[in-house]
Known about the structure:
mainly alpha; elongated; Serine Threonine Protein Phosphatase 5, Tetratricopeptide repeat; 151 residues; Actin-related protein 2/3 complex subunit 5; cytoskeleton; single chain; ARPC5; ARPC5_sf; 7 helices; cytoplasm; 0% strand
Amino acid sequence: MHNTEYRKYNVDDFDPAQFYDHHDSLEGCGPDEEKVRQLLEANQLQDALKASLLSPPLGHQEQNLKDNSTLLVAHVLHYSFKSSDLVSIQEIIDNQLSIDEVDILMKYIYKAMQLSSESSTCQSLLTWHSLLVAKFGHGAIVRVLAGRQRL
């Protein structure tokens, strides 16, 4: 008999192409909608945007959760920031958002364009998209399209 003590690990568990949904509950995943709505009502737009980008549901199979999170972020982007207020949008992009938050925001923008049928919403999303690309370059687009985790 050969010694099989070295066979402690299943190498298939370490394959990055394998996907295991370890999320049993939906709690703590996705932005806190109540908090975002409270911040919007208090006219704290920058904080509402930051709160809507917290804990995106990238690893979940629950498409309804992903769509609701996307619609919430689209609501924050479209209804909170007027397209005539490009100076404040550019200030937020320049001073408030990190690279990781920009990548998450770009994922939300693309998904919101897919979900939305209103031309005014898509127009405001394209405004945000163009300002993000102007600041962070085409790398922001490439990271979204090449990323494995989807909304």
